[in-house]
Amino acid sequence: MIDNSSIENLKTRLDIVDVVGNYLELKKNGANFKALCPFHVDSNPSLVISPSKQIYHCFSCGVGGDAIKFVMEYEKLNYPETIEKLASMYNFSLTYTDNKKQVDRKLMDNLTLFFRKNLDMQKNAKEYLVQRGVGEALMEKFELGFAPNSDETLNFLRSHGYSMSEAKEFGVADISENNNKAYCRFTQRIMFPIRSRNGKIIGYGGRTITNHPAKYINSPQTNYFNKSKLLYGYFFAKESIFKQKKIIITEGYMDTIMLHSVGFTNAVATLGTALTNDHLPLITKMEPEVILAYDGDAAGITAALKASILLSRHSFKGGVILFGDGLDPADMVKNGEIEKLEKLFSETQPFVEFAIERIVKKYDLSEPLEKQKALQEGTLYLQSLPESIQESFKGVLSGALNLPQNLVKTKRNANIRRELEAFIDVLELTIIKTILQKPALIDTLLNNIDISMFKSHQEELKLLLNNELENPRLVRIGMWDDIKVYDETNLLSAMITFLIRFYNEKLLSIKRDKTLNYKEKQFHIRSIQEKIFKLKKGELVSYE
Question: Is the pLDDT of residue 472 over 90?
Fold first, then answer.
């Protein structure tokens, strides 16, 4: 384990501008720096790097943190790996409390080697792989193995000096809640080691050969392994993706392995999950064209639709291939249909076109109400896309529905921005940011303003009062250059302005309230008018 004092000493050497500048092109912007955000498709620099606060924050997708968090997210590393990466960048020598660093690095490698040797002794598992077209060279490259029964694996771990806590930390073993007995998660399964972006084995996928109901299982989420942020085969594929500017995303390990065997070395697979926002940083970095190569069954079509909507909203180039007749890419490779695969990969259906087609197919267009629902869903999807794309595909949606094009109402980005701006109250944000920067003034706020009086940013005020200062919403406000920080005098003036606005709205509400009788209404009106009178004289009034 890395010594905490060593980590703290390293932190004092880190400079957020220097660290982020190693990855991104930075441009000076007042007291801060700006860059294109690498965590979403960003055409207008929205990542702000603050030298004074030593943090970064994206005003578009909301990511943020310090130098360590940036490297963790950008490199897809866990915390210890990130510390070691930064130490290497700054030529800093870390100290360790024990030899756990060496143990951690070897556990997964040694276990993979154990599984690999077991495969040679398992005739059924090896025959299955050979029947699928996986030869020795592929088994060696992808380090395929076999997990025997639980006791054999546990004995291997113990004999090599690994504790149960270490095995549990990597998700390869656990303790049963029923009988408090240790067990291995993978038994009687062909093992597919899963590597991080930098090549370290951090988890496994396992395929049953005993007709277990769960055909495939993955490692559980650990400090090292998060299947929603990983793509199988990415470590082997990243160089080809970079050179070709193209990535093939499949649904399974075997598809990826077999595609690599015939030269499609830019193929990867999701780990039994849908493609999500968490995958996009891996893909965005190389700006490739994306090919979705999915099965043509109901599950594959649903996954392809979700992925197409996600990728089109982030302006990715590319399209979809659906494999029919019970075949998948692995089967086509085994059958020698390489030229057919090449043709399919070059003739994909564009994401937007595919999404519109599939949205429309969900409805019975012979029924008028169903057709209206299809129009509504298709229109909402188009409205989520960039304006130029909306206009280009209006005709595709109207044509699919056999309706006049003028019924497809696209939405201008300017309108969207205006709707968003309606939810931003600069006065409320100014008060919050001032208290953030000058917490000593919080009593001044609480003596006169109740949290219920905030309309647009009540949640942010709650976070502030609960001292959740690292919450992304508050970090965003703290780095928002357009929002000012007041001294006490100007804060009092802002509060008076805020209270006058609040009581004027309340006064109007009471005048319109039909549930109050005449005396009640007059009482409330006089009380509020007195408050407004005092406020206009520059006096603060307490909330009742």
Answer: no
Domain boundaries of the chain, sorted by first residue: 4-89, 100-225, 229-356, 362-419, 423-536
Asked if residues 84 and 113 have their Cβ atoms less than 8 Å apart, the reply is no
Quick check: 274 and 303 in contact, CB under 8 A? yes
Question: In the CATH scheme, what architecture does the domain 4-89 have?
Answer: Alpha-Beta Complex (3.90)
- Collapsed DSSP state (helix, strand, coil) of residue 55: strand
DSSP 96: B
Q: H or E segment at 19? A: helix 16-21
Superfamily classification of domain 100-225: DNA primase, catalytic core, N-terminal domain (3.90.980.10)
Residue 137 CA, chain-centre distance (Å), reads: 35
Task: Measure the CA dihedral 510/516/517/522, to 10°.
Answer: -30
Backbone angles phi, psi at 77, to 5 degrees: -110, 160
pLDDT band at 228 (very low <50, low <70, confident <90, very high): confident
Please list, in sequence order, all residues whose beta carbon lies within 8 angstroms of the beta carbon of residue 234, skipping any fewer than 6 positions away: 195, 197, 268, 282
Strand partners, 107: none
Three-state DSSP at 498 gives: helix
Report the CATH architecture of 229-356: 3-Layer(aba) Sandwich (3.40)
pLDDT tens-digit profile of 326-384? Answer: 778 999 999 999 999 999 999 999 999 999 999 999 999 999 999 999 998 999 899 88
Phi, psi of 373 (to 5 degrees): -65, -40
d(CA 448, CA 273): 50
Asked if 483 and 57 touch (Cβ cutoff 8 Å), the reply is no
Cα gap 302→305, rounded to integer Å: 5
Tokens of 134: 């996986």
Q: Determine the Cα–Cα distance for residues 202 and 71; give it in Å rounded to an integer.
A: 18
Domain spanning 423-536, CATH architecture: Orthogonal Bundle (1.10)
HEC-encoded secondary structure of 188-209: CEEEEEEECCCCCEEEEEEEEC
The span from the CA of 97 to the CA of 77, in Å, is 21
DSSP string, 213-270: S-SEEEPPP-SS--GGG-EETHHHHHHHHHHHTEEEEESSHHHHHHHHHTT-TTEEEE
pTM exceeding the 0.90 threshold for the entire prediction: no
Q: State the chain's mean pLDDT as an integer.
A: 87
Q: Look at strands 246-250 and 267-270 and give their pairing.
A: parallel
Cα Rg of the chain, angstroms? 29
CA distance 420 to 247: 34
SS3 366: coil
Distance CA 40, CA 8 (A): 31
Burial of 99 (0-12, 13-18, 19+ CB in 10 A): exposed
pLDDT digits (tens, 9 = 90+) for 245-282: 999 999 999 999 999 999 999 999 999 878 887 788 77
